Amino acid sequence: MFPTKRLFLIRHTLVYGWSFARAGDLAEIARNLSEELFYVLRAKSGLLTVTSRSKPAAVIFVIIQKERWGGELILIQTMEGCYTYSQLNRYIHIFGRKAGIKIIPQPGETVPGL
Q1: Angle, vertex CA 56, rays to CA 51 and CA 3, nearest 5
Q2: Which string of b and e fits 21-36 if b means at least 16 CB within 10 Å?
C-alpha cells in the first residue's frame, strides 16, 4: 500500500541574481546569516545552503557565487511553507539585507507553484 500523503513536495522555486553589498565574500554572508539565526552550510567553494532554524525547514536558500561580484540565489519553499509567491518576492529583499547582498530580480525565472 502506498502512502496517500506525499512526503516532500516543493511549493515554489524562485531564482534571483545577487551581488555583494555590505558583505564582501561568501564567508561574510555566512557569518551575517548565522548571526540572524539561520543554519548555513558550505558544501563547496562558491556555494552556501541556508535555512532558518525553524523545524521543519520551510524555505531553503542556495547561494551560488558565479562571478567576482555575485551570482545566483535559488529559493525553494517546501509544502511546510506558508508564504505566497508574492510574499516570497517581497521578503527575499529582507533576506538579502540580512545576508549583506543585493537581490537582483530575474524576470521570467520565477514561476508560481501549484
Answers
A1: 130
A2: eebeebeebbebbeeb
Can you give the pTM of this predicted structure? 0.85
| 38 sits in which H/E element | strand 38-44
List, for residues 45-55, the tens digit of each pLDDT value: 999 999 988 87
Domains of the chain: 10-105 (3.30.310)
How many of the other CB atoms lie within 10 Å of CB of 41?
10
- 24-38, 45-59, 91-105: least confident range: 45-59
Q: In 3-state terms, what secondary structure has residue 47?
A: strand
